[in-house]
Prior knowledge:
Layout: E1 14-16, E2 18-20, E3 32-35, E4 41-43, E5 49-53, E6 57-58, E7 66-69, E8 79-82, E9 87-91, E10 102-107, E11 111-112, E12 120-128, H1 136-156, E13 158-159, E14 164-165, H2 169-175, H3 181-195, E15 215-220, E16 224-231, E17 240-249, E18 252-261, H4 272-283, E19 293-307, E20 312-325, E21 328-334, E22 341-343
Parallel strand pairs: 3-12, 4-12
Antiparallel strand pairs: 1-2, 1-5, 5-9, 6-11, 7-10, 8-9, 10-12, 13-14, 15-16, 16-17, 17-18, 19-20, 20-21, 21-22
Amino acid sequence: MNRYTRNKSLIGFIFMSVFVFxxxxxxxxxxxxxxxxxxxxxxxxxxxxxxTFNTSIMYDQDSGGITVRDQSGTKVDVxxxxxxxxxxxxxxxxxxxxxxxxxxxxxAEIASTQKVKMTDNITMTFTIEESSSNDKQAYIDLxxxxxxxxxxxxxxxxxxxxxxSGDFSDIKGDLEKVATDRFIQDTLxxxxxxxxxxxxxxxxxxxxxxxxxxxxxxxxxxxERVLQTAELSDELSEGMIVTYTFKNEDxxxxxxxxxxxxxxxxxxDTNVDTAQAYLEGMYQDPNxxxxxxxxxxxxxxxxxxxxxxxxxxxxxTYYLFQINTDKGDFKRKFxxxxxxxxxxxxxx
Length: 348
């Protein structure tokens, strides 16, 4: 999404992937230092920054007008090239940036061909994605293992005789292997002692996530991973977007935060092909016992669905699929808003 702001006093600006504005004023004015409001972007190791001014410029390679420094403040050996009268390219170092590291790009005292300098220098922080950030399955495994491990530890502390939570100190040591102390004290301990209801089939975390339908790596650095996925709606859950934040402590990824957000707007907005592939994968799971599975899209329709949270009913689109297997055929409704799968009786 391109974002920009406009000011009548501006007569110059640059573009850096998204819009960023610089002020150009009188010759000799002392430049202020401003941080670009879009700082913090996670980019690949070979990121090239393209900077476009709205006027022709004079760039001196020896001026130090464009610099990149690492977290220690050491200047990085980037190459700056002028590409046309109003464009600059900032090429990465020959060996690329270091995965997981953060850098600061600074744009300072660039002058137009009329020798008018910027009145606002710009700094922008960016972080290099980890080398494994494209390994989606590794992140999915991290989320799924964390879900099941913490759930099992909490359940192990349940007192079946009194049907209540036991002594939290008995399970704290095991939790320290998968979660930060902050998350244990602020979230897991209150949940275990005040909210947990094991016989009620309740769980803090999703029993299963729909990573095939939605999974995003929000942030991936050497110190932090923010991963987002979805729990689909079913008889036990209304469905939601769930976000996990992991911190790297002594080489181990520990859960540091967990947030839930109800579906809104168009929800998951799953298309027919994705829903079809999801159902095929689901019914091909050996636990279902089918050797041959064919999923055929038939039609779409709408159905009124009640939302207990808002106490309102909504017309929700569904896709109707015919499921053909070696053990019989049946139909299913898939709701693209929240992934709810409706079971149809024979003859429907």
